[in-house]
Amino acid sequence: MTRRQQAIAFFVALCVLLVGAAISLNIGWVVINARRLTLLVLGIVSFALIIAGLIVYTVFLVLEIKRNEEHQTFINAVTHELKTPIASIRLYLQTLQSRDVDEARRRQFYDVMLADAERLHRTVDQVLKAGAAGQKRQTLARAPVDMAALARECVELALLRHHLDPAAITLETHDDRPLVVSGDVEELRTVLANLLDNAVKYSGDTVRVTASVAAPSPYTIWVRVQDRGIGIPHKLLKRIFNRFYRVQARGLRQIKGTGLGLYIVKTIARAHGGRVFAQSEGEGRGATFTVELPRLIPDAAGLRPQTPDPRPVSGIRPVA
């Protein structure tokens, strides 16, 4: 049992004991003052308030312990994500400074250092975006965005970033008409990049990811990323979009990350008037993430966004 679990168990047990003591006192008060109506009512109300206060206090304390544990896990993850590439870059720079390295090795070192610098940039960028996502008001630089073209760009970037064969990630489009939304292209690029990175990381040794862009109704666009990886237990489908939460994969090496990616995806989707869905048949059976956004369609005045159809499509339930 971890320290956090021990603390939670202690406070829950303490709450149960205090509630039991309060109930015992309440029963004694009722017996003693059975014939005094005013004192009887006053005692019952007072003891009810005490019991409610104890329960609320214990729940608050348990939530705070859990939140502190999540923050500590996040700090450890971010520290690792920052220290590892910095140590790698420092090592290569020291090697270049102290030894004569041939041109081929030098170029290899530069490639590794650039990759580590990109990893540092992604980590810092995710932390900054998560901080911005926590603010209630966000100003989006809205413009028409072709989601099919953006998805194609993000797929090519993911293949390059993860050094994958072109067949590892396939892109499908299911509509001949323009699949355009009104939004911030950089924010939407972040959504697709995070979903693709997650799909690759949780695919295991064999990466087979399918990205698709479609219009399930005249007023909405779906961007869907499907992998054939470790899958997600059904009970965790609602939690994976929480800040700092990370799915621990069985049988895989420790997967790197900060636990902010899906939280950022959810926040950006909501800021664009959309939703995000998650679906998985269970562990070892892959996962599908779908972002639904209002579609921008032509009308007499030009282009205007439409409100998504609130009815569920294909039986998929919105998770966040």
List keywords for this structure.
disordered C terminus, 320 residues, alpha+beta, two-stranded antiparallel ribbon, 16% strand, five-stranded mixed beta sheet, Heat Shock Protein 90
What does this structure look like?
The structure is a single chain. The chain starts with a helix and ends in a 15-residue tail after the last strand. The model is unreliable at 305-320 (pLDDT under 50). The chain has six helices and nine strands. The radius of gyration is 26 Å and the shape is extended. Strands 2-4-5-7-6 form a five-stranded mixed sheet, covered by helices on one side. Helix 5 (185-201) runs antiparallel to helix 6 (261-271). It has 320 residues and is α+β, with helices and mostly antiparallel strands.
Biggest β-sheet strands, sense, barrel: 5 strands, mixed
Task: Indicate the CATH topology of the largest domain.
Answer: Heat Shock Protein 90
Q: Rg to the nearest angstrom?
A: 26 Å
Tell me the domain tally.
2
The succession of helices and strands, N to C, reads HHHEHEEHEEHEEEE
| Unreliable stretches covering 5 or more consecutive residues | 305-320
Can you list the strand order of the major beta sheet? 2-4-5-7-6
CATH structural class of the largest domain = Alpha Beta
Helix content: 40-55%
Q: Report how far the terminal alpha carbons are from each other.
A: 31 Å
